[in-house]
Design brief:
Blueprint lengths: L7 E4 L5 H12 L3 E6 L4 H7 L2 E4 L5 H14 L5 E4 L14 H29 L7 E6 L12 H21 L4 E8 L5 H14 L3 H10 L9 H12 L10 E4 L7
Parallel strand pairs: 1-2, 1-4, 2-3, 4-5, 5-6, 6-7
């Protein structure tokens, strides 16, 4: 059992999708959960007995304020889940510099700033737990292999993958483990956007596109948010005490081909 009783976890981008699922799973495992998004997920926090705050992950000042808030309201931090992210499907020739910068600001700079800001709080409490403190970064199968039309997104998720490995080496002496999760296509709003983009690119109907996206996975279907949340809880727990710098792929076999 992934017992997280007594631990404090922060999940960014927690209003819906994988962030919401991760927050629910961490709370179920016993953690006190802090949830943030552009609009504070107050209802979710109330349901989970946690706390919520509005946060822009692209703001350095907002990250500093979030750490002050965690110290004051929760007493510290043991687990950081860098989940907030954006999707973009555009050919390179149609991708603007603003598109590129916006995606990297959220998907890459947000992860960097979150990790950097959280290090002092995580280090303070790492000795309390057999497995130390934990950072879980959300990458993607798109961080492991390329996809035409998703080069900008590939760039961001590949950056998260290797940033995770470098951070894991740097933070190991402080007993802070850093790992990444690489989902396939999961039943979320982002997946629905991907299906719409796929339909537009292929000129096929929505149902056909959905079937085609599902068929990308050898298991024959898309995943559900709980599949990813379970991996996040595992990596946050002492059961993963000997894992750092690892990439956990939860993709229905997509990258096994």
């Amino acid at each position: 059992m992934n017992d997280l009783a007594g631990r404090i976890a922060l999940v960014t981008g927690a209003s819906r999708g994988l962030g919401e699922a991760a927050a629910r799973a961490l709370a179920k495992a016993g953690a006190t959960v802090a949830v943030t998004d552009l609009a504070a997920p107050e209802a979710l926090a109330a349901e989970l007995g946690g706390i919520a705050r509005a946060q822009d992950v692209t703001s350095e000042a907002d990250w500093a304020a979030t750490m002050d808030w965690l110290r004051a309201e929760a007493g510290g931090l043991d687990i950081l889940v860098n989940n907030a992210g954006l999707w973009l499907f555009k050919p390179i020739t149609e991708t603007t510099l603003d598109d590129w910068r916006r995606l990297h600001a959220v998907n890459v700079e947000g992860v960097f700033m979150g990790t950097r800001a959280a290090i002092p709080l995580l280090a303070e409490r790492a000795a309390k737990w057999p497995g130390g403190a934990a950072i879980v970064n959300l990458s993607s199968v798109a961080g492991l292999r390329g996809a035409a039309g998703a080069s900008c997104y590939n760039s961001t998720k590949g950056a998260v993958r290797l940033f995770t490995k470098g951070a894991a080496l740097e933070l190991a002496p402080a007993r802070i483990r850093v790992n990444s999760v690489h989902p396939g296509v999961i039943e979320t709003d982002m997946a629905r956007q991907l299906i719409d983009d796929f339909a537009g690119a292929g000129g096929v109907g929505g149902n056909e596109s959905r079937d085609a996206v599902a068929a990308m996975h050898p298991l024959g279907h898309m995943g559900v948010p709980g599949n990813i949340a379970d991996a996040i809880v595992f990596l946050a727990s002492d059961r993963a005490a000997f894992m750092t710098g690892s990439e956990v792929v939860v993709d229905g076999g997509m990258t096994a081909r």
